């Protein structure tokens, strides 16, 4: 293989000889060819680290949190904000996430460097492998996957979070847009930073078509790096490969082999070869360029040019269909040549304007070997139409019949036809043009250096820290309002006033410097700021999600060293919120997206199985206000005593507690049916903490289609909370026990719409239910529906739950694949469950989901959905279900969670399907059917 030194030596000798004869034009062509063949200067950083690649040119398929780990933070060796780009989901063999860089124009990409997320020492994420995809014009929008010499797609990446690993590509890539697709055989959280290396692409070739090279038992002379397609006739199309990759075949590859056509495998990589099928065999290569160009020479690196082909035709075209032959060169065989020399064959042409060039070789020996083809050309300046007319009119003046012989004095010498000497006027004109270009380049370089120095002297911006004093952002989860407090003096006036005094249990504080989220518990004022109206401090712990405690990117629990003292209302030394168990991300302030395969489940944690606490909150630093229908006057839960309740029956029980149906006597004539969820006496502290957290979460919900907490007692054993219960019990039993004529289609859709409304409310607050089914919905008078969570505790629904492992009991028939296999729960997994619930409703509870499949077959079917197997089974369309309604179900059952609709969209769809329906206008159910046995509704 010819080294760069040899190439420059050949260039230098050619330059000196032409200088002696003042052949300036040929000197310029020699310089052009030397630079085209040199890849040694094409390993410069393209600008991810320096900032030459702008933020708007960096994008991604998704981001875990755009503000802290978005695509703009994927700059190598720069540790801003979260410290890297992190996709929304975990990476595995199926998941497709990418980081994209738009280079704006064609570049030669020669190397890729990657780095993990260091994050100031807190990061734990890095890519093990990645796939390189790229795009350039002329491929119809298709992305191309890079393959190395062995046709492997996977590129090895990093082994830790901070060490940068640079991979030099086997063959350069020509592209204007580049994607890095992280890959992992097993589910893995990945974050990465990136730098690209290469140079601008000046040649202009965007594709060539050629018959694929020959492959036999002795050697492989195919175009191994071609990135296009091969048609049925064996012709390569719409791609680039070895003939334009800048790698030149070795000078002695074929000279020291006894059999002229048996070569060592190590020598064949840089060569593409075609066998002759007999006299008159032709090999045609058609090159496509990015725009019309002015051509002055074609250079071909060929082996044994004396005897490989007898004729070379160069043809030009503007449209790729009609070619005009303007150059026809005949080679005289050299019988005296004793070796098969490899060298450059330069065919000069009179200046020709075209966008397509065809090289047609007429073979004269057993094989033709070509390593590289280059063009001396310039971008066309002027009116293309004029050039087309001139080109067509001059096509009859083609030069043909010239004979020339390859010079054997130097292996890589350039062989050209004579060019006449130029006049002195042209010499001065060319020198003047080059002098002006040189001065222009120097000025631009000086400006670039000055700009870089100015940037380096500017202070670096950090999105997480500020030189100013820390700010605290107070969020009211009830109203969605936010308030920025910058010092301790502003805490008291905000909290200890009549307007907010009774609502501070809804407040959470975000520390903008440490990026912590804590629930506001106790506060007090200095005596000079004390108010006359006081109210007791709550002693509950902050609301937080158990599922957010294991991921490096997700919030971690951090206990405070100080203890709480709420003995006197607002009497401590300062109004500072409790920091115990506060949520503190490593760098990012967003924890709304669950991390696959590391989410802790309430099913996993036996301490949460005192009854059924399936309603789960994903705490976010940016809660969104709910814009839907809310209950304006939901009473706050009050302290109650067991003596106020008369037990009617036990609804269900769990590992640590029971749920009882009770009659609550609030007054002499005021009775209400309620569900009392209580802990067993003597339960462990962690169970009590989970019970308290559940109360904190559920007591803040205020939607008419969700059950509400009416009372609480955590002062004495047994701890219990009082929740709403409706007349007709759970929806599953209600559907099965009603006559078909009393549950018409409108009534069924009306009930489903109410459930969608309640789930829309939870979705807006980033709450996840995780066990949505008819068993977990309650029905009241006139088909009024509320979402609850009692189903798991009831023995009649025990067959709905399957124990996957020791502490993982789940409703597999209602679950999507990501929840079953990755333990990933989100509002999108609730959407999947809602579609199954809708299927139950439209079947009037008479059909059991996948009733013909065993639990093991259900799990196998979910696995088929995960692998996109055509054998995957979905629930059939119910008999009374319209096509549009079943299409909604199928949308909810899409494999990709992010393609499933939102509950807002589902609710709007169902509202439109149920226009004009009113339970008052429909046939009254309560007039003909008895309510629940103990229901005081009538």
Low-pLDDT stretches are 1-37, 263-267, 332-338, 395-423, 457-471, 498-505, 512-516, 521-632, 921-938
If you consult CATH, what is the topology of the domain at 205-415?
Jelly Rolls
Calculate Rg over CA atoms: 38 Å
Task: Using the coordinates above, name the CATH class of the domain at 205-415.
Answer: Mainly Beta
Shape from CA axes?
A: elongated
| Beta-strand percentage range | 25-35%
Mean pLDDT: 73
Q: How many strands, which pairing sense, and closed or not: the largest β-sheet? A: 11 strands, mixed
Number of helices: 15
Distance between the termini: 96 Å
Architecture of the domain at 205-415, according to CATH?
A: Sandwich
Helix percentage range = 10-25%
User: What's the count of strands?
Assistant: 37
Helix-strand category: alpha+beta
Structural overview:
- There is one protein chain.
- The protein is α+β, with helices and mostly antiparallel strands and 938 residues long.
- Among the domains are: 15-34 and 423-455, no CATH class; 44-200, Jelly Rolls; 205-415, Jelly Rolls, CATH 2.60.120; 731-913, Transferase(Phosphotransferase), domain 1.
- β29 (657-665) and β30 (671-679) form a beta hairpin.
- α10 packs antiparallel against α12 and α12 runs antiparallel to α14.
- The N and C termini lie far apart (96 Å).
């Amino acid at each position: 293989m010819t080294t760069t030194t040899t190439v420059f030596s050949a260039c230098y000798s050619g330059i000196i000889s032409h200088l002696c004869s003042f052949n300036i034009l040929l000197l310029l062509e020699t310089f052009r060819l030397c630079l085209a063949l040199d890849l040694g200067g094409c390993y410069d950083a393209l600008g991810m680290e320096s900032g030459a690649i702008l933020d708007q040119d960096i994008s991604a398929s998704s981001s875990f949190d755009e503000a802290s780990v978005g695509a703009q933070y994927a700059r190598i060796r720069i540790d801003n904000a979260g410290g890297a780009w992190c996709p929304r989901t975990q990476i595995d063999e199926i998941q497709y996430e990418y980081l994209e860089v738009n280079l704006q124009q064609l570049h030669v990409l020669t190397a890729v460097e990657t780095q993990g997320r260091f994050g100031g020492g807190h990061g734990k994420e890095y890519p093990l492998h990645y796939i390189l995809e790229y795009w350039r014009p002329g491929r119809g929008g298709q992305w191309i996957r890079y393959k190395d010499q062995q046709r492997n797609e996977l590129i090895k990446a990093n082994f830790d979070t901070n060490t940068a690993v640079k991979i030099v590509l086997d063959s350069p890539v020509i592209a204007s847009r580049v994607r890095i697709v992280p890959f992992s055989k097993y589910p893995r959280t990945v974050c990465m930073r990136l730098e690209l290396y290469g140079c601008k692409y000046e040649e202009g070739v965007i594709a060539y078509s050629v018959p694929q090279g020959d492959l036999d038992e002795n050697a492989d002379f195919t175009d191994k790096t071609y990135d296009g397609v091969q048609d049925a006739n064996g012709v390569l199309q719409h791609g680039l490969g070895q003939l334009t990759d800048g790698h030149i075949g070795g000078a002695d590859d074929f000279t020291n082999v006894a059999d002229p056509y048996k070569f060592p495998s190590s020598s064949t990589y840089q060569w593409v070869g075609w066998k002759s099928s007999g006299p008159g065999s032709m090999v045609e290569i058609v090159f496509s360029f990015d725009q019309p160009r002015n051509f002055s020479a074609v250079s071909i690196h060929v082996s044994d040019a004396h005897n490989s082909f007898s004729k070379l035709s160069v043809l030009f075209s503007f449209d790729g269909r009609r070619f005009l032959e303007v150059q026809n060169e005949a080679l005289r065989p050299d019988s005296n040549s004793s070796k098969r020399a490899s060298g450059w064959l330069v065919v000069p042409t009179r200046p020709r304007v075209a966008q397509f060039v065809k090289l047609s070789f007429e073979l004269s020996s057993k094989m033709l070997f070509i390593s590289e083809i280059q063009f001396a050309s310039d971008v066309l300046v002027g009116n293309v139409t004029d050039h087309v007319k001139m080109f067509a009119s001059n096509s009859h003046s083609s030069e043909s019949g010239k004979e020339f012989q390859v010079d054997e004095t130097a292996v890589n010498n350039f062989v050209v036809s004579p060019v006449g000497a130029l006049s002195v006027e042209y010499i001065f004109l060319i020198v003047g043009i080059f002098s002006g270009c040189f001065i222009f380049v120097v000025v631009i370089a000086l400006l670039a250096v000055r700009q870089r120095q100015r940037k380096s002297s500017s202070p670096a911006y950090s999105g997480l820290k500020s030189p100013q004093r820390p700010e605290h952002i107070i969020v009211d989860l009830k109203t969605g309002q936010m308030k920025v407090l910058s010092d301790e003096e502003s805490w008291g006036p905000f909290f200890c006033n009549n307007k907010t005094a009774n609502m501070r249990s809804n407040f959470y504080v975000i520390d903008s410097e440490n990026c912590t989220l804590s629930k506001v518990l106790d506060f007090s004022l200095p005596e000079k700021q004390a108010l006359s109206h006081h109210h007791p401090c709550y002693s509950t712990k902050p609301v937080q999600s158990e599922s957010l405690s294991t991921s490096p990117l997700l919030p971690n629990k951090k206990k405070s060293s100080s203890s709480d003292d709420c003995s006197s209302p607002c009497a401590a030394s300062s109004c500072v919120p409790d920091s115990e168990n506060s949520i503190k991300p490593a760098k990012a302030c967003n924890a709304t997206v669950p991390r696959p395969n590391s989410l802790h489940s309430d099913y996993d944690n036996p301490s949460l199985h005192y009854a059924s606490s399936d309603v789960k909150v994903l705490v976010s630093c940016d809660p969104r206000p709910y814009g839907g229908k809310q209950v304006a006057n939901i009473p706050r839960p009050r302290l109650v005593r067991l003596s106020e309740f008369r037990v009617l029956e036990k609804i269900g029980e769990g590992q640590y507690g029971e749920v009882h149906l009770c009659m609550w006597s609030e007054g002499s004539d005021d009775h209400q049916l309620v569900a009392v969820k209580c802990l067993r006496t003597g339960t462990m502290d962690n169970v009590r903490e989970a019970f308290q957290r559940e109360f904190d979460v559920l007591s803040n919900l205020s939607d008419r289609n969700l059950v509400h907490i009416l009372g609480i007692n955590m002062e004495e054993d047994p701890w219990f909370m009082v929740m709403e219960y409706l007349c007709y019990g759970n929806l599953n039993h209600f559907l099965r026990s009603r006559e078909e004529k009393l549950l018409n289609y409108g009534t069924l859709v009306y009930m489903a719409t109410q459930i969608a409304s309640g789930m829309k409310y939870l979705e807006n607050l980033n709450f996840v239910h995780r066990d949505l089914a008819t068993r977990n919905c309650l029905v009241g008078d006139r088909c009024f529906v509320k979402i609850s969570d009692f189903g798991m505790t009831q023995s009649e629904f025990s067959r709905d739950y399957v124990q996957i492992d020791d502490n993982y009991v789940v409703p597999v028939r209602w679950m999507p694949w990501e929840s079953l296999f990755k333990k990933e729960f989100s509002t999108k997994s609730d959407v999947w469950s809602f579609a199954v619930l809708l299927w139950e409703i439209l079947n009037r509870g008479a059909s059991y989901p996948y009733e013909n499949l065993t639990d093991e077959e259900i799990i196998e079917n979910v696995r088929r959905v995960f692998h996109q197997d055509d054998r995957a089974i979905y629930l059939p369309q119910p008999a009374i279900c319209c096509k549009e309604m079943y299409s909604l179900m199928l949308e909810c059952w899409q494999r990709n969670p992010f393609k499933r609709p939102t509950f807002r969209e589902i609710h709007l769809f169902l509202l439109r399907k149920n226009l004009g329906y009113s339970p008052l206008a429909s046939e009254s159910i309560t007039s003909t059917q008895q309510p629940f046995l103990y229901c005081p509704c009538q």
